[in-house]
Amino acid sequence: VPAGPAESRFNHGQALARQNDWAGAEGAYRDAARLRPEFPEAWNGLGYALRKQGRLDEAVKAYREALRLRPKYPQALEYLGQAYVQLGRIKEARDVLARLRPLDREEAAELARAIAKAARR
Fold this sequence. Notes:
The chain has 121 residues and is mainly α. 79% of the residues lie in helices and 0% in strands. The chain is globular, with a radius of gyration of 14 Å.
């Protein structure tokens, strides 16, 4: 499948994210999502870039859009759970963990560790 403009912007976002340029990555992921609104990876990347900038409520909205498009998207579930942990919304993080466990054991273990650490604080 030839990569179109949305994929090109998404790939640029991935490259910027690898350099920890979260504002740049955010812009590229926003472009990708605008060019192709039904692009769950772009919404997930946008959520991650927002979360890395501490913009947790916006990140949650982006992850939820990724999950609306692909309900069984393990990485988006794990990232949404992490955002809930950072927001102190542990019950919601646990609910996400329950959805994630049957899909991806490694992502679930990562989220479970974050929840356990937050619960000890």
